[in-house]
Write a structure and sequence with these properties.
disordered N terminus; eight-stranded antiparallel beta sheet; alpha+beta; 362 residues
Length: 362
Amino acid sequence: MTNSRTSTLALTACLLASAIPAAAFQASRPLDGTWHARLQDTWTRRDGQQWVSFNLRYETDNRFDNGRWGVSIPMSELEGLGARGDRWTAKDVKFSLRRDAGRLDFEGSFDEGRGAGLWRFAPNTEYVSVMNKRYKELSSEQVLKLAIHDVSRAFIGAIQSEGYQNLTIDDLTKMRIHGVDADYIQAMKKAGYDKLTVDELVKSRIHGATPQFAQEMRSAGFDKLSLDDLVKMRIHGVSPTFIREMRELGFKDLDTEDLVKLRIHGVTPAFIREMRALGYKELGAEDFVRMRIHGVTAQFVKELGDLGFKNVSAEDLVKMRIHGVTPEFIRDVRSAGFKNMTPDDLVDFSIHGGRRWLKKRA
């Protein structure tokens, strides 16, 4: 009887094993390793939520995986931690992180806010079973990554409902890391950016080219911007305030490229006002860009004025800077006996070896 029962159990186990894919066993394999953290490295996001960074290490045979991860976790999701201040000291601490993909258990101690110990990850077999129907042969490392970044079945379902059906694990992880969720996709669609790729959505999020920024640009008169233009404007600081101030200064017809160029080269409203106060009132945007590129500053113009060079044209100012005609150079030239040189004379003198001649003379 005992032998018969034993045989039945053995047969049942074999049938169960044959019914579960090998990949499910692989992905369900627990992972473990060591962890380190510093409570002094916590930070607070805009929503007021406090986060802390952990360094996880584990052994791996994968030559493309160095067995180290840096991860950030909301303090509120670390069950049982109970940290009190960034200099917290405690022994035999146990806490956990529960996610749809599995559970990460920590144990260790903290000394003056520095923590270290062991961790163990147990994948959620139900999650793994569902995921393996779409993503074959998920490794335990991949499931851990999905758990850490909280790529839940609910998140995946919501993304799919927005039309993103065939995403890779890396796509889903990137979207989760950078905050591209279903709400964000819907908001981008309402802002006029429909059918964006995952990389485009992530790029817009990384650089802050959000639906709100798109609306601000629309209010400023730019209602048909491509996503690339929207991102460029955000990267280079072309804000509604900048656009308004430039229009108040008379630059009313600047396009996206003009505005980006002005920001790249540091042509600010303050710079324009400063140069206009020195008499340069009729210059166009390109003139101001050239001046900034070649280092024609208000200080340079004032120093030239002190040396007697009044009302030098913008073109001559740029040429002087290009060819190294600085106030110091002008003083050296005058010390050598050349008293009445014009800007063009000084540029020609510098181009044709005047600087070398002055050095030899010194």
